[in-house]
Each structure stands twice: as structure tokens, then as C-alpha cells.
Amino acid sequence: MLAYDRTDGRFWKVACDYIPANYPGTGDAFAIVVVGSILQGDSLPIALDRAVQCVSIAIRATFEHTHPAREGFLLERVLDTLKGPVVVSSYELME
After folding, report:
1. pTM summary value
2. Structural domain containing residue 58
3. pLDDT value at position 7?
4. How far from chain centre, in Å, is Cα 57?
5. Per residue in 8-42, pLDDT tens?
6. Furthest C-alpha separation in the chain
7. Cβ contact 77:61 at 8 Å
């Protein structure tokens, strides 16, 4: 995932593992977590990292169950992960 911060002209990269699944709503959830994190005072790279981690964990949780993909992913199972700080950051500054 790549992002650009136009206030300081920097590009950020956040890595995540590929999970071979498609669920509706993942992009919406990602955007909501990014915006919510920024509104709570997180920097762009921390907000991106938080969103990648939250959505990835939710996709993994859904992928492990026999939940129909057309019904979306199980975000409510991992909402508690948003309460804590980002403990392991996977973002990096692109030069």
C-alpha cells in the first residue's frame, strides 16, 4: 500500500501479507480507520499502519471461517484491535 502526504511531500509504504480472498466493504473499512485515526491525532503513516493491520486481521478471521464472501468480512470480531496503540509498525518512508 502506498500513500502520499502532500503537506510534506513524502511517500509512505505499508506492507502486508496477501490473503487469497475478496470481501465487499474492505476498502470502506480501510478508509474509515485511516480517517478515524487521523482525527484521533495519529500521523498519516501510523493511521495507514493501523488500517492495514485492522483490515488484514479481519480478513484473516473471516478467511478462517466458512463465512460466505458475499456477506462481507467479520470486522466486528477485531474492532478491539483499534483501542490499543500500533505496536509493530510496518510502514516505511519511500525516498
Report:
1. 0.81
2. 2-94
3. 86
4. 9
5. 888 988 888 888 888 999 999 999 999 999 999 98
6. 44
7. yes
